[in-house]
Design goal:
The complex is a heterodimer. By secondary structure, chain A is of the alpha/beta class. Helices cover about 40% and strands about 25% of the residues of chain A. Chain B has 2 domains: about 45 residues; about 210 residues, MetI-like fold (Orthogonal Bundle), CATH 1.10.3720. Chain B is built from 11 helices and no strands. Classes of the chains: A alpha/beta, B mainly alpha.
Chain lengths: ~270, ~280
């Protein structure tokens, strides 16, 4: 229902930039040039994917946006303000691993961001309840991470990212370690959440199929140091569901992106 | 076929029988050893001042119970004080080191020196400079604090990198990071260190009591052993030794139990194989 609104907002460009990177580079202390120079514009409410081979700097870009490191040169802006290396509360981050605290229950894990910002308990409890409901884990609040499956742990991680009601959701290959069935289901749930909550999502993945299925825009990165190799708009009708996954249109997008990706991995294989 | 069978067959054959055997076998060895010992004493008419029979040791334990029990309590109190000091000192120092690298660089070498110098060689010096009751506790502390320190340090440094990033992302203060992330993550390591420290503080207490020897007014179990040795009261030596050993086992068992209870909800070490 909200999807048509979102796409029309995007076309008119009225909603402004959520994230903006200009000639951002990252060179680690070890001398490894991981990123850039890298330019990126993400509009409010947009779902984009950063696609590329392992070690191409996708995660580095994400960490810069999150403020988990400073760029070596260039600028990283969120809502038109430079990213402070100290925490930014309007960002939710989902790592490749669930990254849960094994000593704490699901409830306590989701509560963490609110506890750190010292939110009053009553208000926090409501938020936690909502976040757990959004990912379908209301019945598991007392469980411990080790008692959950890989997919469920990822849902907890997602709930924790959503609990602060962030404007921007950064996801670093969150479903890469899951089996395909679970990944497909989580893809659909994520799309539903995105449609309902209208977050800006930057999704890092190395799967062409996942990036095409989820995003409005796929940004393909070249091998290290990561730069933009190509960009694709996935102009498929919303809302997308399982029928999209099996459609000729989806296959067409995947073929286009795969063909563009081919030179980059051939270069890599030769190197 | 053999590939399929192997994994399922081996746990079954090695999983059930040993469970009982692991309890029965040590008891059988103990009983057999005591019986053989008793028989040898009787068969060769060995005098009690050479080697007392188990039955005599047991009788001594009963007749000398008042003296031995008082000594046991004295030694246990020393051990407990040393252990508490080691726990507080070790964990506290590790926390300080974790907050300030400069402090760690300045002090850690001395912690190592304290650890590698044999306590039995330090004890006589301590007894010169400190009142005996204090010296004994300090000895127990010296041997016991290092495993707590090094384990806690290791634990505080083995925090998941992404979780640390998450704390940074949400603007956690130093204290919050310590309280909600580092300490819980270090807990299994700390408990492991405490388990080692429990046994070591008993050793420290005993070493100090022996070093104090006849000079002191102490009346711990180790002092009893030394004193009984001078008087050739060998059965009492054995009885005191038995009590010390039992005390060590109980201390270890208690700490292992506490560790298990604290960690059982989440840590691999406390989980059954089936999960």
């Amino acid at each position: 229902m909200t999807a048509p609104d979102a796409s029309s907002d995007l076309e008119t460009g009225m909603t402004g930039l959520a994230v903006r990177l200009r000639r951002a580079t990252k060179i680690y202390d070890t001398g490894v040039a991981a990123l850039g120079p890298f330019d990126l514009d993400v509009r409010r409410g947009e779902f984009i994917s950063l696609l590329g081979p392992s070690g191409c700097g996708k995660s580095t870009a994400l960490r810069l946006i999150a403020g988990l490191g400073a760029p070596t040169s260039g600028t990283v802006e969120v809502w038109h303000r430079p990213v402070d290396v100290r925490g930014t509360h309007s960002i939710g981050f989902v790592f490749q691993e669930p990254t849960l605290m094994p000593w704490a229950s699901v409830w306590e894990n989701v509560r963490l961001p609110l506890k750190l910002s010292r939110m009053p308990a009553a208000q926090a409890d409501t938020r936690i309840g909502e976040a757990l409901a959004q990912v379908g884990l209301s019945d598991f609040s007392e469980s411990y991470p080790r008692e959950l499956s890989g997919g469920m742990k990822m849902r907890v991680s997602l709930a924790r990212a959503l609990v602060t009601d962030p404007d921007i959701l950064l996801m670093d290959e969150p479903f890469a370690a899951l089996d395909e069935t679970t990944r497909f289901r989580l893809n659909n749930d994520l799309l539903a959440l995105w449609r309902n909550l209208r977050k800006t999502v930057i999704f890092v993945t190395h799967s062409v199929f996942e990036s095409v299925y989820l995003s409005q825009r796929v940004i393909m990165m070249t091998a290290r140091p990561g730069r933009i190799g190509a960009e694709f708009r996935i102009d498929a009708p919303e809302p997308r569901g399982e029928e999209f996954r099996t459609s000729a249109e989806y296959a067409g997008f995947c073929r286009t992106v795969s063909q563009a990706l081919a030179p980059s991995y051939q270069v890599q294989a030769g190197a | 076929m053999s590939l399929e069978k192997a994994p399922s067959a081996s746990p079954a054959s090695s999983g059930q029988a040993p469970r009982i055997l692991r309890i029965v076998l040590p008891i059988a060895v103990l009983a057999g050893g005591i019986a053989l010992w008793e028989y040898a004493i009787w068969r060769y008419q060995i005098q009690p001042y050479v080697l007392p029979a188990p039955s005599l040791i047991f009788r001594t334990l009963v007749t000398d119970w008042r003296v031995l029990f008082d000594s046991l309590i004295t030694t246990l109190i020393t051990t407990l004080e040393g252990f508490a000091a080691a726990a507080i000192g070790g964990i506290g120092l590790a926390l300080l080191f974790n907050q300030s690298k400069l402090l760690e660089y300045s002090l850690f070498p001395y912690a190592v020196i304290l650890q590698v110098t044999p306590v039995i060689a330090i004890a006589p010096l301590l007894l010169i400079y400190l009142p005996q009751t204090t010296a004994v506790v300090v000895c127990a502390w010296i041997v016991a604090f290092f495993p707590v320190l090094s384990n806690t340090t290791l634990g505080l440094n083995s925090v998941d990198r992404n979780l640390a990033g998450l704390f940074q992302l949400y603007g956690a203060s130093r204290l919050q990071t310590l309280r909600y992330l580092k300490l819980p993550a270090a807990l299994p390591f700390i408990l492991g260190g405490l388990r080692i420290a429990g046994g070591l503080s008993l050793i420290g207490a005993v070493v100090a009591e022996i070093a104090a020897g006849s000079a002191g007014a102490g009346s711990g179990l180790a002092y009893r052993i030394a004193e009984s040795g001078y008087r050739l009261n060998i059965p009492r030596m054995f009885a005191a030794l038995l009590l010390l050993s039992v005390a060590g086992i109980v201390i270890y068992g208690l700490l292992a139990l506490i560790s298990h209870l604290v960690l059982r909800r989440w840590h691999e070490s406390a989980l059954g194989k089936e999960s």
